[in-house]
Amino acid sequence: MRKTLLLTTIILLAVALAAVAADVSGKWVAQVAGRNGTQEVTFNLKADGGTLTGTVTGGMGGRGGGGDAPQPVAISDGKIDGANVSFAVKVEANGQTRVTTYSGTLSGDELKLKQTRQGRNGEQTADVTAKRATT
Known about the structure:
Number of helices: 1
CATH architecture: Beta Barrel
Strand order of the largest sheet: 1-2-3-4-5-6-7-8
CATH topology: Lipocalin
Structural class: alpha+beta
């Protein structure tokens, strides 16, 4: 009886964790303050087990040149562990690769992330809160 109850509990926890991880899939939108003012950043994410893939548009995650609309940039190193997510965005500019990393937690319809990138004056961090888009 106790073994059955323990096994059932473990299975239910595994299913609950999988549901939380899968819940990050979709479109997320954040307003991010930058040196050129506030910019909209869109995260299109897809969870597959413990792996996170997708794109980022806007901010460091894809700038159009010459008035072009921002282009999506693929994320890399995406991971999900329960409600915790992390990924990187690599952008080529002027012969250099700029890497911005994101790590944080999913809480309902909010994705609370810490954005980190190397700047001229060392590491720069910012808190970013993305909200699940309804469209």
